[in-house]
Amino acid sequence: MADYEWLKPIREMVGREYGRIIAWDEVNPAMVRQWCEVMGVENPLYTDAEYARQSEFGELVAPPSMLQSWCEAGFYRDSYAPGSTEDNPYTVLKLIEAEGYPSVVAVNSELTFERYVKMGEKLYYTTRFDAISEEKVTALGTGFFVTLIMSYFSTNDSGEDDKVGELLFRVFKFKPANPVAKPEKTESGLPKIKRPKPGISDDTRFFWEGCEQGELRIQHCKACDKLQHPPAPVCMHCHSFELDYQLASGKGQLYSFVVMHYPEVPPFDHPNPIGLIELEEGVRLSAQLFNVDKAQLQIGMALEVRFETFDDEMTLPLFAPVSAAAESLT
Fold first, then answer.
1. Cα–chain-centroid distance for residue 172?
2. What gap in Å lies between CA 114 and CA 194, rounded to an integer?
3. Cis peptide bond N-terminal to 176, omega within 30
4. Coarse DSSP helix, strand, coil percentages of the chain, rounded to the nearest 5 percent
């Protein structure tokens, strides 16, 4: 691949060291206990003080794989502890992005450990811009692999800080091979928001293909002759894998409903009425309620399916009162 003139100053940055990112808190048992609970780690060396006293360490230690946690920013972006550097090692990614490589994906995250970290230690890390590759062509697109090395240290009174671990972090900054089209804009110049597409799998594809054909398809078990919704890979009644579908009439009644007021989620109606509909065939499904007076919604009211196509690409089943559905189709 050809080397670009704009890459020269970036390559000259390789080897640059960035300042300290300091931990907000000392290594402490409360955070270790919570981390172990979340991660399902039950090693008593981390949470049982009496057990740890009898170990080779003589006290509690922190799980090695928790190393990154100690120096994370606070809840808000870039809210690092006082004394941390303001120099951003990810600046190199912005420089590459400015040359037409907008996408990024992490490809390597490799932690190595020098020793266990004990309670009361105060950690920090520094970052080195370690490498940038030649331009590479991948299935994702064309771009550059950028490698950063984070070195973690524990401070001590002697002034000779002790290295406790290292993180190699590599990302791919690239031009997508199949770029996503820019969103349409409204008359006001704002991006036009489309409805989110449903997740479609081998188990649910028949349902969405049916919607495109104006059919309400409900999964059917050939072994026990029962219906189920939502679709699943196995019958919920007899656990058979022998599944097909049957066409539903599309008629039913309102079993339950909610009118969503907040948050406002475009492009959905506001307020947005959502119903749980019990079909004549006995199964229930949730769907947006259509052409309905929200103040008149009542449990048990008769409903009928209405297929609507959105954004010229996605057909969904909506439900309307029987009379309203009939009127809208005439």
1. 19
2. 50
3. no
4. 20, 35, 45
Residue 329 above 60 pLDDT? no
Give the tens place of pLDDT for each residue, 182-231.
Answer: 666 666 666 778 888 888 899 999 999 999 999 999 999 999 999 999 99
Q: What is the pLDDT of residues 30-59, one digit of tens each?
A: 999 999 999 999 999 999 999 999 999 999
Whole-structure pTM value: 0.59
Q: How far apart are CA 274 and CA 269, in angstroms?
A: 10
Helices (H), the chain: 7-11, 29-39, 44-47, 49-53, 91-97, 205-212, 322-328
Cβ atoms 131, 13 nearer than 8 A = no
Q: Give the domains, in start order, of the chain with CATH numbers.
A: 7-176 (3.10.129.10), 210-215+249-328 (2.40.50)
Instruction: Count Cβ atoms below 10 Å from residue 162 Cβ, excluding itself.
Output: 15
Secondary element (H or E) of residue 246: strand 243-247
- Cβ-based neighbours of 290, under 8 Å, separated by 6 or more: 306, 308, 318, 319, 320, 324
Q: Is 78 helix (H, G, I), strand (E, B) or coil?
A: coil
Closest to 62 in 3D by CA, of 96, 22, 98, 34: 34
> Which parts of 40-77 fold into alpha helices (H)?
44-47, 49-53
Q: Tokens for 125, please give them.
A: 């890390």
As a residue count, the chain comes to 330
Structure tokens at 59: 């006290």
Query: Which residues have CB under 8 Å from 298's CB, separation 6+?
Result: 254
* Cβ atoms of 302 and 322 closer than 8 Å: yes
CB 52 within 8 A of CB 115: no
- Tell me the C-alpha distance between 292 and 307, whole Å: 15
